[in-house]
Design a protein that fits this description.
This protein is α+β, with helices and mostly antiparallel strands. 37% of the residues lie in helices and 28% in strands. The protein has 3 helices and 4 strands. The longest helix is centred in the first third of the chain and has 12 residues, at 13-24. The relative contact order is 0.24. GO terms for molecular function: electron transfer activity.
């Protein structure tokens, strides 16, 4: 099973683009607003060393992948979808 969590903020253009990418490819995802959730924002810094969004965490076959920004090729590769 694949779990996709995307950390976003309301004004982030790349966050919207990433969510549209998921919708276009029928990828179920959970969205967490890092602007409203301080613990989520802190977790982003711990995992990536920065506070930029979007941050997507994909867990597949017990392996966690962290994708910074709207990296379409990396997202497509991890999720097994075509661009």
């Amino acid at each position: 099973m694949t779990t996709v969590i995307i950390y976003t903020t309301p004004t982030c253009t790349y966050c919207r683009a990433t969510k549209e990418f998921f919708k276009k490819h029928n990828v179920d995802f959970q969205e967490i607003d890092a602007a409203a959730d301080r613990k989520a924002a802190q977790m982003i810094v711990e995992k990536t060393g920065q506070l930029g969004v979007p941050v997507t965490i994909i867990t597949k076959d017990d392996k966690e992948e962290v994708v910074l920004g709207f990296d379409q090729p990396k997202l497509a590769d991890i999720l097994g979808v075509s661009l």
